[in-house]
Amino acid sequence: MKKSFLLLFVLFGFVGISVGQTGMKAINKAGRLLSTYNLDPSANADKLSQALDLLETGFEDSEVQSSAAAYLTKGEILSTQANSIINEVILNPEAGEGKDFTVGYKAYEAFTKAHDIAEKKFRKREALKGLVKLESIIENMGVIAYQNSAWEAAFKSFNSAMDMSDYITAIGEESAVTAEKKQDLLMNALTVGSQEGSGLDITSTVEKAIAMDIPNPAIYQIAYSTFEKIDPDKATMYLEKGIAKFPEDSGLLFAQINKYIAEGKLEALIDKLKAAIAAEPENATVYATLGNVYDQLYVQASDEGNEDKANEYFDGALKYYLGATDIDENSFNSYYGIGALYFNKAAKVGKELNELSNDFSAAGIKKYDAKKAEMTSMYEKSYPYLEKAEKISPDEPLILQALKEYYVRTNKNDKAAEYKEKLEKVTGGN
Question: DSSP readout, 20-74?
């Protein structure tokens, strides 16, 4: 029994040594395949593919994972693959589809690992040489990954290019990445990371860009949108900091406008929107938005019984809605807004009319007739704008409902029935 146990122990030891040797053999063979590929890349493309497969096999072995030479080979193979992809895409932009865009930053990781664990100076020099050669490759790989919507690979490539520059500098060597280039790389990373649907965490990258004081207002827009949901106070702080640094930037201004809209800060919006109009005088949407702000303030003032303010806001809403239609004759929201503005005012006058309906004195009847004429005038003023809105968007339920109500209020029953049918057809009766 003792002899059997000893034999089993020896066998296990033998198997372990065999696996280790197999791992290093795979790496060495991968290196030889790379050398063959480099002799004639066009004729030996399969050699590079075989080398990549052997890397995966070789690094399953723990002995390989502690070898600086193995990481150097890995870095060289991945760097060569990255360069091959770049050259292929330069010749044929559609060739990027399905490519592995991670090889660039993975080559960086391999070379830095080799440098960190190498005990012999010549190994460290080889790792440094690989890193320097990789600097331009990894940035180009980031660009190609971005062009192919490979957001994570592009983001990591741009960030690795910056980190690699810092690494090279930290070990006393000169990096080809200038301070200006580093800012460009950081902006590239932010642009990629802020793509809708990227799913990337760019919080630290945003704060790094702000700490570098890069003179670009887009950073503060990205910072605001990045922290808006996870840290609203920080988001507001960055937005205000950006506006203070770049008071003329329309992007930051519009971000603040949208923030105020979401918070219902209507009064504060007026000056902001007027500033936006000054910045973009041909932007019909800004006019329409300011018209809508005045419209909401008009409703509030009317409900509070503040007639002076209500009239002021009514005039403001009309002015800016009309301003939008002057710029864009197909501004549905503006035409609908004017129509609704007059319609709602007519409905308000209608309530006042009801209060006068029981006064049969001569003075009471006179007031009643005057109010009725005012109400009718408001309804008739609403119609041309509602009609124009319908022409722009004939199947919009909002406008069909408004026109149905208009015909009901003006006792045009046939038309009211017609628009009731139209509305049911569009909404499916819901």
Answer: HHHHHHHHHHHHHHHHHHHH-TTT-HHHHHHHHHHHHHHTTSTTGGG-HHHHHHH
Q: How far lies 164's CA from each of 105, 106, 134, 221, in Å?
A: 9, 12, 9, 27
Q: How far apart are CA 21 and CA 26, in angstroms?
A: 9
Residue 86: which of 73, 107, 104 has the closest Cα? 104
Closest CA to 238 of 206, 266, 212: 206
Closest by CA to 111, choosing from 97, 124, 94, 100, is 124
Could you tell me how far CA 213 lies from the centroid of its own chain? 22
Q: For residue 279, what are its two tokens?
A: 């910045």
Output the CA–CA distances (angstroms, integers) from residue 197 to 150, 192, 200, 354, in the order listed: 11, 10, 8, 55
For residue 157, the one-letter residue type is: S
Q: What is the pLDDT of residues 171-223, one digit of tens each?
A: 888 898 999 999 999 999 999 999 888 899 999 999 999 999 989 999 999 99
What's the whole-model pTM score? 0.68
In 3-state terms, what secondary structure has residue 135?
Answer: helix
Six-digit token pair at 229? Answer: 């949901």
Separation between Cα atoms, residue 82 and residue 104, nearest integer Å: 5
318-376 pLDDT per residue, tens = 999 999 999 999 999 999 999 999 998 888 877 777 777 676 677 767 877 787 888 88
Average pLDDT rounded to a whole number, residues 230-243? 94
| Six token digits for residue 423 | 């509305």
CB atoms within 10 A of CB 294: 26
d(CA 314, CA 421): 32
Angle, CA 409 vertex, CA 404 and CA 413 arms, to 5°? 65
Instruction: Please give the single-letter amino acid code of residue 360.
Output: F
